[in-house]
Amino acid sequence: MSRAGCRNGIVLANKPRGWTSFDVVSWARRRLDNVKVGHAGTLDPDATGLLVLLVGQATKLSQYLMLDEKEYLARVRLGIRTDTDDATGDVVAEQAPPPLSEADIEETLTSFRGTIRQVPPAVSALKQGGRRWYRLAREGAVFERVPRDVTIHELELRSYESPFIGLRVVCSKGTYIRALARDIGETLGCGGCLVDLVRIRVGRFELREAIEAEEGTTGEELSRRLLPLEDLLPDWPKAMISDEAQVRVGHGAAISSHDLRSVSRPLVRGDRVRLFSPAGKLVSIAEAVSAHADIMEQADEGPEGLELQPLRLLIDTQECT
């Protein structure tokens, strides 16, 4: 969707090294007439790669888009431990890595696949007592870093030339690749830190589709790269609703199965659903909250009683021409 007057959707941006994620948000906001812009998952300043920018109404979907799995290319330096778990921190210990074969590293990586317990880096944006960890760490405060469950869906050894390991990682929300690098190094007996990180995918969006975040980019160029709301959350079922139901949804009211013209697949209670207007516009996301278990593909054939409660209204109040 490349219409300059439309300010709802997402932009895929390639974040350069040295920029914060907020720098990229500000870069986009200045070029899109100061419309509201957010993102679906931060990147450290020293990392590069895909940042999914949420524009206008799309900012309301942030918490759902952040759940998407992410894919990275990472480079780990064995034998060095830092206070940030990456190359930007102060070195706290250094030693020569032991002689290792690719088979040794592959064996170690096996223990990091699947759901693991991970201690986040001390220098991170997590909060304790209302304060960011990185502020506490810089002040020398002692605080507990509680391990969290994260899932490493794929962990591939792409290269090894001592002391550097190249990895491809597909992981869940909340995974710190810095911490993964640290823990792999510890398991190999020499410590390690992250020296390079590129995010190449978020959900179904890939880095190769992204526009470069650079000062020379114009608002018109950015607008042409704006993807519509209708492209978001494609794995969620899609329901077409009537004109009357759209009015009720606009007031935050639940709608019943009789208000649906069609559903892309059978639903069960607890499903998150995308609600589309008769004109094909995404107007809301909703949750199935009734006690009945199923609704058939054609709404009027399903059991009565299923209700869809709006979670976020996405009524487009701006004209897109």
TrEMBL record:
Domain named tRNA pseudouridylate synthase B C-terminal: residues: 178-233
Keyword presence, Isomerase: yes
An individual GO BP term: tRNA pseudouridine synthesis
GO MF terms, alphabetically ordered: RNA binding; tRNA pseudouridine(55) synthase activity
EC number: 5.4.99.25
The protein's role, per its UniProt record: Responsible for synthesis of pseudouridine from uracil-55 in the psi GC loop of transfer RNAs.
Family indicated by similarity: Belongs to the pseudouridine synthase TruB family. Type 1 subfamily.
Protein name: tRNA pseudouridine synthase B
Organism: candidate division TA06 bacterium SM1_40
Phylogenetic placement of the source organism: Bacteria, Bacteria division TA06
